[in-house]
Design a protein that fits this description.
Elements (H helix, E strand, L loop, with lengths): L5 E3 L2 E4 L13 E4 L6 H61 L2 H25 L1
Antiparallel strand pairs: 1-2, 2-3
Length: 126
Amino acid sequence: MAAPNRSRAGLSTRPAAYGGSSSSNEIQLRIDPMHSDLDEEVSGLYKQVRRLRDVAQEIEVEAKFQNDFLSQLQMTLIKAQAGVKNNMRKLGMSDIRNGSSHVMHVVLFGLLLFFGVYFLSKVFRR
């Protein structure tokens, strides 16, 4: 029967020698010299670590690119907001300068129309 702490062929775990507490995060490995495929496992683990490192570097590059893109977008948005605010200020000043004469023109048109209809009704009534 296999040992209770055996994980793979040739490898087994045992509790840490000091303290004897089972809550320790440290594990000691005992290597069985009968199995010689450990070199293959080590090289396989090395390849996996290298792939993970490459993926982490790609993620870092992509994160930097997206961060730069967002910074440029934010600057463009700030400039656009400033331009809109400036144009709104200019429009407001031009209305004040012109005295909002369009309202006066509408009122005058209404009065002229009213008097025109009034006089036409007086003329055709007779």
